[in-house]
Amino acid sequence: MLNQNPVWRYFLVLGMLLLALVYALPNLYPEDPALNISATRGGSVDDATRARLEQSFIDANIAAKSVVLENGQVLARFNSTEDQLQAREVANQLLGINFITALNLAPATPDWLSAIGASPMKLGLDLRGGVHFLMAVDMKAALDKNVNDMVQTFRADLREDKIRYRSVQPDLANSRVIVSLRTAEDVAAAEAALKARDRELVFSQGSDDLTLLVGISEIRLKEIREYALEQNITIIRNRVNEIGVAEPLVQRQGADRIVVQLPGVQDTAQAKEILGATASLEFRLVDEEGDLAAALEGRVPPNAELYYTRDGRPLLLEKRIMLTGEHITGANSAFDEYSRPQVSIKLDAKGGNMLSAATRDAIGRRMASVFIEYKPGTEIGADGNPILIKQQEVINDATIQARLGRDFRITGINSPGEAQNLATLLRAGALIAPIQIIEERTIGPSLGKENIELGVTAIQWGMVAVLVFMVIYYKAFGVVANLALVANLVLIVGVMSMIPGATLTLPGMAGIVLTVGMAVDANVLIFERIREELAEGRSVQQAIHQGYDRAFATIADSNITTLLVALILFGIGTGPVKGFAVTLAIGILTSIFTAVVGTRLVVNLIWGGRRVQSLPI
After folding, report:
1. What average pLDDT does this structure show over 85-114?
2. What is the pLDDT of residue 18?
3. What is the bridge-based pairing of β-strands 122-123 and 503-504?
4. Quick check: 387 and 381 in contact, CB under 8 A?
5. Do 263 and 351 share a domain, yes or no?
6. Mind telling me which residue stretches traverse the membrane in this protein (predicted)?
7. C-alpha dihedral over 44, 47, 49, 51, to 10 degrees?
8. How far is CA 3 from CA 62, 405, 482, 521, 593, in A?
9. In angstroms, rounded to a whole number, what is the distance separating the alpha carbons of residues 241 and 259?
10. Looking at the 3D structure of the chain, how many domains does it have?
């Protein structure tokens, strides 16, 4: 008998719908206004901090839904944004500058749903509210850093090959190195030695016959710029994730721009704190033979530089950089065998080799960790942006106990909180080149809420219009199509909630509205085909069977072409365009499933496999 399905197929489809429904349920629970409190350098977050915060909220008559310690951060939930804002003022007064108090929106998903990994859809900035930054990478600083690294490398290489030189100095204005040698033979030997180690160096004659100008090829310059941009994107994303901002967007824009969006964060100033300083890290040896007193009077040795620790203590450090933070792959705070705080650090292979070579003859000497921060100054550069000012401080100095490799530890840290913060900074990474914010804007939660309400209203009215039309025009079969439409919407929401990288934006809601209209298009094709088969005199069972089979090719053709357009939009689009493409693509796939598979099961269940004289279509 035609139009009969095995029982397992009904259970399979029903199971898929129930799964989608379960994962769509978290979207029914609105997010709570919340505070996300974490520590900066010099502070620590523990259960005592949580208890102090909770008591301070009670004393200020602020009703907090919960105040919990999660992953080294305090998350406080409130009933309203008014309580949230008042609580932030209380927290700032209580904790001071060593903590970051960020406004956020926390999911209110029940525990039983969270236990199975169900979570609400990720909302874009236009729906959830938050802050948007456009950041510029200082490519000149990246090139300067590369030139300074070349200076150190050339000195080491020439000493290793026993080639005498007068000086090796950087020419930052032209992104090259000036090598002054003693004889013409030394010039030839130096060029041959350096060229053998790096074929992409460009050599030219200097102002005299004993000077070499060593530059970088255009290919290498492009690689340096690309590396600086991509590494900064990765590091900024790591920093945001370390702080705990939910679903951030960090992506490239153009040749030297980075877009950062932090949904749910409402305070631009606090968001800048969350991003952290545009900073880098360097490890240098302490110059214990230099005259510190003379350096303080301005007579700094030629191979050293004067630095200060956070508490104002002066330190004389060697100019030679042993290691930069870009080679750090992991860092964790712990305690040593004497229960003193320490930070365990893991390096990549290149960094391990560099540190091993640098510390081979430095056992017993002190190594300092230098934190370098770039802040916008008052002067404006040629590009119209403020010129960045370099600020440096020593965050830690400790004695090297043994030759270091890929794994080593930093000791001499004052407190566990300081160790945890240093580990967080190292784990998040050091920026390859300084960045500065050239554009910022804030989207308030009220605007995001209004966008959601308008989008939901549009979806509701669109569904009502389609539902009414289908019932009037196709009668009982219209009811079946309407059931498929509701199931399609549940599937879209469920799939969007299950996909980790999917984000719903305002254009994405427009894609759902469009899908609502397109979802019944396949049913219209099928139902019209069934009508044609009945008009040609075929039996009811033959008409249903032929209607679905012959309409499928047309349905597939029309939807595949639309799906290809959605994939192209996703591939070349950014931000809102991608949001529209995601919901459109998911909607196309779910509508084909519900229209072709879902409605056929229902039709076969009601009218299939039995003697029926007519159809209510």
Report:
1. 81
2. 92
3. parallel
4. yes
5. no
6. 454-474, 481-502, 508-530, 551-573, 579-603
7. 180
8. 63, 71, 21, 22, 17
9. 16
10. 4
Give the β-pairing of 257-263 and 249-253.
antiparallel
- 516 domain-assigned: yes
- Tell me the pLDDT band of 205, cut-offs 50, 70 and 90: confident
Report the amino acid identity of residue 151: V
Three-state SS for 542-607 is HHHHHHHHHHHHHHHHHHHHHHHHHHHHHHHCCCHHHHHHHHHHHHHHHHHHHHHHHHHHHHHHHH
Residues 260 and 287 placed together within one structural domain of the fold: no
Q: Give per-residue burial for 302-339: e unless 16+ CB within 10 Å, then b.
A: eebbbbeeeeeeebbbbbebbbbbbbbeebbbeeeeee
Question: What pLDDT digit, counting tens, does each position of 562-606 carry?
Answer: 889 888 888 877 667 877 888 888 988 898 888 888 888 888 888
Domain span including residue 41: 32-106
Q: In which residue are the tokens 């025009």 written?
A: 473
DSSP structure class, residue 210: T
**In 10 A of CB 92, how many CB atoms?**
15
Contact at 8 Å (CB) between 401 and 395? no
Collapsing DSSP to helix, strand or coil, 415 comes out as coil
pLDDT tens, residue by residue, 504-553: 878 888 888 888 777 788 888 888 888 888 888 888 888 888 888 888 88
| Domain match, 20 and 94 both | no
Residue 137, helix vs strand vs coil: strand
Q: Are residues 464 and 376 in the same domain?
A: no
Residue 434: pLDDT band by 50, 70, 90 thresholds?
Answer: confident
**Are the C-beta atoms of residues 496 and 515 closer than 8 Å to each other?**
no
Q: Which of 367, 275, 267, 269 is nearest to 315 (CA)?
A: 367
* Mean pLDDT confidence for 21-26: 91
The SS3 call for residue 129 is coil
Of the chain, the percentage scoring pLDDT greater than 90 comes to 3
Residue 242 has pLDDT above 60, yes or no: no
Can you say how many angstroms the Cα of residue 597 is from the centroid of all Cα atoms in its chain? 38
Lowest mean pLDDT segment, chosen from 154-163, 292-301, 338-347: 338-347
Give backbone dihedrals phi and psi of 208, rounded to 5 degrees, phi first. Answer: -140, 175
111 located within any domain = no
Read off the pTM. Answer: 0.60
CA angle at 118 for the pair 111 and 249, rounded to the nearest 5°:
115
In eight-state DSSP terms, residue 325 is G
Tell whether 75 and 48 lie within a shared domain: yes
Look up residue 30 and give its DSSP letter: P
pLDDT at position 303, please? 81
**CA-CA distances (angstroms) from residue 496 to 104, 125, 182, 224?**
22, 16, 69, 38
The amino acid sitting at 508 is G
In this structure, the number of other CB atoms found within 10 A of the CB of residue 571 comes to 9
432 DSSP assignment: S
Rounded distance between C-alpha atoms, residue 286 and residue 284, angstroms: 7
When pLDDT is averaged across residues 392-417 and rounded to a whole number, the result is: 77
Looking at the structure, tell me whether residues 66 and 184 fall in a common domain: no
Q: Do residues 1 and 541 make contact, with C-beta atoms less than 8 angstroms apart?
A: yes
- Give the position of tokens 């289908």: 470
| C-alpha span between 482 and 574 (Å, rounded) | 34
List strands edge to edge, sheet with 435-443. Answer: 249-253, 257-263, 130-137, 435-443
